[in-house]
Amino acid sequence: MKRMMAAGYEKIFQICRCWREGERGSLHLPEFTLLEWYRAGGDYRSLMEECEELIGFMARAIGNGGR
User: Fold this and answer.
1) How far is 12 from 56, CA to CA, in rounded Å?
2) Helix (H, G, I), strand (E, B) or coil at 30
3) Dist. CA 32–CA 20, nearest whole Å
4) How far is residue 15 from each of residues 7, 35, 52, 55, measured CA to CA in Å?
5) Nearest CA to 42 among 15, 11, 2, 8?
6) Integer Cα distance of 9 and 20 in angstroms
7) How do residues 3-59 score in pLDDT, each as one tens digit?
């Protein structure tokens, strides 16, 4: 993904399965799904806005969102 950013892509993402060995517990499973995204030209404030929009969208999609 970082190579794609270096090649000029401005926005990229992937949703993938991840595996962490030796981290099993009551709150941790060794396998989980991860959303990873990159965007050129953003700062931490724009990242916070994107996160808020994503969480709000998902909450509304499952019927738990306000706004």
Assistant:
1) 20
2) coil
3) 8
4) 21, 5, 18, 15
5) 11
6) 29
7) 999 999 999 999 999 888 777 777 777 888 999 989 898 899 999 999 999 999 999
